[in-house]
Amino acid sequence: MNYSKITTAALALTLTIGFATQSCAPMNNMAQEKTVMVGGAPMYPSKNIVENAMNSKDHTTLVTAVKAAGLVETLQSEGPFTVFAPTNAAFNKLPAGTVETLVKPENKAMLTNILTYHVVPGKISAKDLSMWIKKNDGKYMAKTVQGEELTFWMKGMDLYVTDSKNNTAKITTADVNQSNGVIHVIDTVLMP
Fold it and tell me: Which N-terminal residues, if any, form the signal peptide (predicted)?
């Protein structure tokens, strides 16, 4: 019996199986991730905020605004960030022409100001918000990346956020985990 041929064949088979397993691992890991459906697409915790938002058909206006404001690279960075992501329907509540005006290059600073008002540093879960609200007599305030504060409160089991102009947004989908933070989907655009 030729042991060197058997050993060579076994080594080749081991390497082949090893490479096949390695090349399938990312797909298997992604398939096993706990996802949340947003805008008809699964949101993968292994992807960053921008990668996931781009797949949501409910957030096309937000993605367009983020690109126009030049915030893509920032929201793809390590973070962590907590993003309160308005849906297309939320943007549609704004007066006619508002979005079209905001995404013009000459309005980049104003758009950036609005978008960064939807971002809080750190990764804050709905459970964290609920706990902090209860500990603070029914309201919790958090400073945004933009610099002003948002006020969080609850009605029953629902979480809400109020901006500095007293606009109120309901968190419609909470805890959409990302590789660099978390997204909470909201039904109203917040204004600083």
Answer: 1-25
Count of domains forming the chain: 1
Q: H or E element: which one contains 105?
A: none
**CATH number for position 126:** 2.30.180.10
Per the confidence metrics, is the pTM higher than 0.85?
Answer: no
Q: Is residue 127 part of a domain?
A: yes
DSSP, res 122: S
For residue 121, give its domain range.
33-186
The pLDDT tens digits along the chain (192 residues) read 444 443 333 333 333 333 333 334 444 444 567 888 788 788 888 888 888 888 888 899 999 999 999 898 888 888 899 999 999 999 999 999 999 999 999 999 999 999 999 999 999 999 999 999 999 989 999 999 999 999 999 999 999 999 999 999 999 999 999 999 999 999 999 999
